[in-house]
Amino acid sequence: MTMSIEQLKADGWMKEANYIAGEWVGADDGRTYAVENPATEIWIGDVPWVGAAETRRAIDAAQSAFVSWSQTTAAERAARLHQMAQIVYDNLDTFATMLTLEQGKPLAEARAEMKLGADYIQWFAEEARRINGEIVPSPWKDRQILVTREPVGVVGAISPWNFPFSMLSRKVAPALAAGCTIVIKPSEFTPFCGLLYGILAEEAGVPAGVVNVVTGDGAAVGGELTSNAKVRKITFTGSTRVGKLLYRQSADTMKKLSMELGGNAPTIVFDDADLDLAVEQAIAGKFRNSGQTCVCTNRFYVQDGIYDEFARRLTERVKQMKVGNGFEAGVEQGPLINHAAVKKVEAHVEDAKARGGRILTGGQRHALGATFFEPTVIADVTPDMLIAHEETFGPVAALFRFRHEQEGIDAANATEFGLAAYFFTRDLARTFRVARAIESGMIGINAGVITTPEAPFGGVKDSGIGREGSSHGIEDYLHIKYLSLGGL
Ligand code: NAD
Predict the structure, then answer these.
(1) What's the total number of domains in the chain?
(2) pLDDT tens for each residue of 107-130
(3) What does the DSSP 8-state code read for residue 168?
(4) Is residue 97 located within the same domain as residue 211?
(5) Are residues 286 and 408 in the same domain?
(6) Residue closest to 458 by CA, chosen among 444, 449, 468
(7) Are the CB atoms for 332 and 287 separated by under 8 Å?
């Protein structure tokens, strides 16, 4: 490990307190809960377990801070965000250590996530200065029509554990860039990367109350964030089940909503694909973060003519993957987040085996025990298996066989999700045909890893609403106001 837990705490990067109204505080009743390293299941820290009362105070602080923050110039907000990004760039190794400690992913992946988060913050620092209005040709001779964009107000942000830093960067940065203030609730499994936003705000001179971070009881904090009328927008990344709950809970106060939810991504490999590229990209897209990625492939549809060869090459490569603690050199796959995650993966594999799936490699808990699972490839997967319908969220590549193009498309679309999809082909006409036919918010064509601040990230169907990143990612934090200026 590059830096010890004690050092991270002594240097002030790993905070065991909540950040409300510019103060580092505990729960009202002093309650805390323990955070563990998923690779070792050893305690790494205690953070406050707060509920509705503390959340209400954080919302009030954000509401007060909104009055002046929303009046700052775009250049001022951009400067603060640039500073926040710079602190991350300057401390990539330190922050990556903290991420691997609480989340488990290999250190190189943690570093990449931290850098991606800083890239998003930088992107929205730049976007802050492009929140333009419009002057529209008027139907009246004596009137001017003006359209302005204004910050929506206090934002409630709830985030998952799989990308605990970068998922929040696409919420915090556009909110601040737009002139909004925010109350953050990170996942209970990875609170330290969420609390880091309090530290970054403080260090970058963002005024007290603009950024607040509370940790603890998801239902209680989420209940307050969604029912409190002062919160004007909820931005959520997590499971479809919780997303739908928050959607319903937000109805009475008519909030703006962004929902980045679950996926069940298909990858279609056509007979004419560049197989080396398809295998290399399949590995990157599937096994990153131990397969705990909302956009990672859950279902591989491989055309008849290359099915056996693709399966052989993929299996060969997967067999070489080194599994272990994310701090060990050369480790490509870390642990899963907890025992529940291992059980779900195991259940999917067992179900596939029972229904005729053929294990080509892996297929069981790893010899390291605890939260480790073997990188797995299963052939002869069929639509009746659990893995065809549910997000496995683990290191399992499931290979389905198809014959004709339309069959592959129909199978890929046979899900209530529509976040990411991928396909591999060298045929130009097919590229456009298939891209048009796939029901998905994002499509990787001959590419397995597609996330970047420049592009709009988000899904259709049960995968959510709204887009994060790109020039569109700030829209959800803005209201449009129409001014009809008469008497000219
Ligand atoms: P989750 O839905 O269990 O938890 C997400 C967050 O919601 C956590 O902070 C949790 O504490 C909170 N929460 C749980 N119950 C709540 C409640 N009743 N009220 C309010 N908040 C509550 O999801 P997870 O297990 O942390 O993350 C994995 C899921 O996230 C997967 O389904 C994955 O596909 C999805 N995900 C989607 C994207 C995307 O951009 N679409 C990105 C990453 C992860």
Answers:
(1) 2
(2) 999 999 999 999 999 999 999 999
(3) H
(4) yes
(5) yes
(6) 468
(7) yes
Residues 231 and 89 in one domain: yes
Q: Is 260 a catalytic residue?
A: yes
Pocket test for ligand 1, best of 55, 169, 234, 261 (most atoms within 8 A of CB): 261
Indicate whether residue 162 lines ligand 1 (CB < 6 A): yes
* Ligand 1 and 219: CB distance under 6 A: yes
As a whole number, mean pLDDT of residues 226-231 equals 98
Residue 237, ligand 1, Cβ within 6 A: yes
To the question of pTM greater than 0.90 for the whole model, the response is yes
Nearest residue (by CA) to ligand 1, atom 40, is 260
Contacts of 209 (CB under 8 A, 6+ apart): 21, 22, 61, 62, 64, 65, 181
Of 109, 260, 374, 391, the active-site residue reads 260
Scanning 358-459, the segments in alpha helix (DSSP H) are: 386-389, 405-413, 428-437
| Whether the CB of 263 sits within 6 Å of ligand 1 | yes
Residues 185, 276 share a domain: no
Instruction: Evaluate whether residue 403 is within a structural domain.
Output: yes
Could you tell me the pLDDT band of residue 1, with boundaries at 50, 70 and 90? low
Look up the CATH number of the domain holding residue 13. Answer: 3.40.605.10
> Distance from the CA of 465 to the center of ligand 1, in angstroms?
15
Angle between helices 92-103 and 74-90 (to 10 degrees): 80
CA of 254 to the centre of ligand 1 (A): 21
Which residues span the domain enclosing 10?
A: 5-261+463-483
The answer to the question of residue 450 being in a domain is no
Gap from CA of 186 to ligand 1 centroid (Å): 9
The confidence score (pLDDT) of residue 2 equals 66
Mean pLDDT computed over every residue of the chain: 97
Q: Is the CB of 188 under 6 A from ligand 1?
A: yes
